[in-house]
């Protein structure tokens, strides 16, 4: 999507502090971190939200979660939280599916 900031990052058109990338997934540090480790994990292909996914996206969703586990391991995050906001009312500020990988401090429950 031409005006999507995350699509531009995935395409290399905008700079970001990348921590992981493969053919399907890109991950980078959040500009407004909510924990010592706060990494955004996105699909390269534009998908607006989890609700916009279909059965055909099952493999991609699995790849995103496996990437999260690999990134956590690489960053020595034994304890971490993986958050996905769906829709503006839930806090999704960019209309591109993304997970927040949070760690590096105690994460209380309930989260919000």
Written overview of the protein:
The structure is a single chain. It contains 2 helices and 5 strands; from the N terminus they run αβββαββ. It is α+β, with helices and mostly antiparallel strands and 112 residues long. The protein has a single domain (5-103), classed as 2-Layer Sandwich (HIT family, subunit A). The protein has a 5-stranded antiparallel beta sheet with strand order 1-2-3-5-4. It starts with a helix and ends in a 9-residue tail after the last strand. The mean pLDDT is 96. It is 21% helix and 23% strand.
Helix-strand makeup class:
alpha+beta
User: What coarse outline follows from CA principal-axis ratios?
Assistant: globular
Question: Strand order across the biggest sheet?
Answer: 1-2-3-5-4
CATH superfamily: HIT-like
Ends distance: 31 Å
- What is the beta-strand fraction? 15-25%
User: Architecture, according to CATH?
Assistant: 2-Layer Sandwich
Under the CATH scheme, which class?
A: Alpha Beta
Query: Averaged pLDDT, please?
Result: 96
Low-confidence stretches: none
Number of helices: 2
The tally of beta strands, per DSSP, is 5
- Please summarize the sheet with the most strands: 5 strands, antiparallel
Proportion in helices: 10-25%
Radius of gyration (CA) equals 13 Å
Return the domain count: 1
The fold-level CATH name is: HIT family, subunit A
Order of helices and strands: HEEEHEE
